[in-house]
Amino acid sequence: MLIKRPADIRSSEITDKQVYLNRREFIGASAATTAAVAAGVLGTEAFVHAATPAPHGRKLENVKKTPFGADEKPNKWEEITTYNNYYEFGIDKDSPSMFARNLKTDPWTVAIDGECTKKGNMPLEDILKGQALEERIYRHRCVEAWSMVIPWVGFPLADLIKKCEPTSKAKFVEFTTFFDPKQMSARTSAIRYPYVEGLRLDEAMHPLTILAVGLYGEVIPNQDGAPLRLVVPWKYGFKHIKSITKIRFVEKQPLNTWQDQASNEYGFYANVNPSVDHPRWTQATERRIGEFLRRKTLMFNGYGDQVAGLYAGMDLKRNY
Ligand SMILES: Nc1nc2c(c(=O)[nH]1)N[C@H]1C(S)=C(S)[C@@H](COP(=O)(O)O)O[C@H]1N2
Ligand SMILES: [Mo]
After folding, report:
1. Strands 146-156 and 210-215
2. Whose C-alpha lies nearest to ligand 1, atom 14?
3. Ligand nearest to the CA of 93
């Protein structure tokens, strides 16, 4: 997702991806070993610098199983919590697993603003009071052409939107990620913070769209967007904004971080679409984390029966 001028293109994009990944894993493993030896000698773990699966969190109670399953085997906890995109904690996939643990997620409030009657700060506790939670096993497809299957625990975003009472002027919903440079390593100036995203109001109200608060029946780990993150399974991963601290109802289509960074590469809609390639790579196939052979990418990530109607009559090549 990095925006680069030709001179900045890393070997990762020139060499075969798999070769690159293997080499990285190898380098990573040897670096970790060296660090572990050093740590052993010094009697400290301070030098260990390697992907770290999230510690297990509190178990969530009364989680309903629902028919929203992907009929697919979920990825492992270790995969879902060590292979992340969360730029505020660094640009490498394993960076969030190493640096997100200091994020303070309790207490948490979400500021509700814009075209709605119930404006103000909503404590997460209040949002969750009496709110039924469901497990939703969803496919996740990143714009970088990797994918996973993730057993989220969450609730329909529509439930929260109704509580905010949007006015008739509200046509879009804008989301903002919490940002505090002291807690977030943000080792890169690659993108502007805070991270922002948006959905059309009907997309936001769609029953497949959820706010996730859990993973594998436990409180969601920081690297996956604690304590509250958006999940829109038919859209590329960058729409799934993490650690939401503000929700604003607006009349005009809001700007989203990746479109702001590179509008020729990333659009507002970001619907998974195997027939519209990214300017620098194909979107026809994907690598499911943990698998060897590539899979064919499905239109709307396989959720077309439920969501294609939202885009009837739209040119999805232009509205990418
Ligand atoms: N605030 C914030 N949200 C974010 C990102 C980010 O860098 N910052 N990355 C996005 C991208 S590109 C993807 S693929 C998903 C990854 O979610 P996961 O790490 O839980 O799999 O988070 C999305 N949400
Ligand atoms: Mo992504």
Report:
1. antiparallel
2. 237
3. 1
Dist. CA 36 → ligand 2 center (Å) = 31
Q: What is the mean pLDDT of residues 291-300?
A: 97
Residue 86 in contact with ligand 1 by CB distance below 6 A: yes
Cβ proximity of 153 and 134 under 8 Å? yes
Residue nearest to atom 1 of ligand 1 (CA): 242
What residue's CA is closest to ligand 1, atom 16?
85
Please give the single-letter amino acid code of residue 131: Q
Q: Which two tokens stand for residue 281?
A: 């790579």
Closest residue to atom 15 of ligand 1, CA basis = 237
Per-residue pLDDT reduced to its tens digit, 165-202: 999 999 999 999 999 999 998 665 678 999 999 999 99
Domains of the chain: 6-311 (3.90.420.10)
How much is the pTM?
A: 0.87
pLDDT of residue 70: 73
219 lines ligand 1 (CB under 6 A): no
Candidate from 174, 230, 242, 256 with most ligand 1 atoms within 8 A of CB, to mutate: 242
Distance CA 138, CA 235 (A): 11
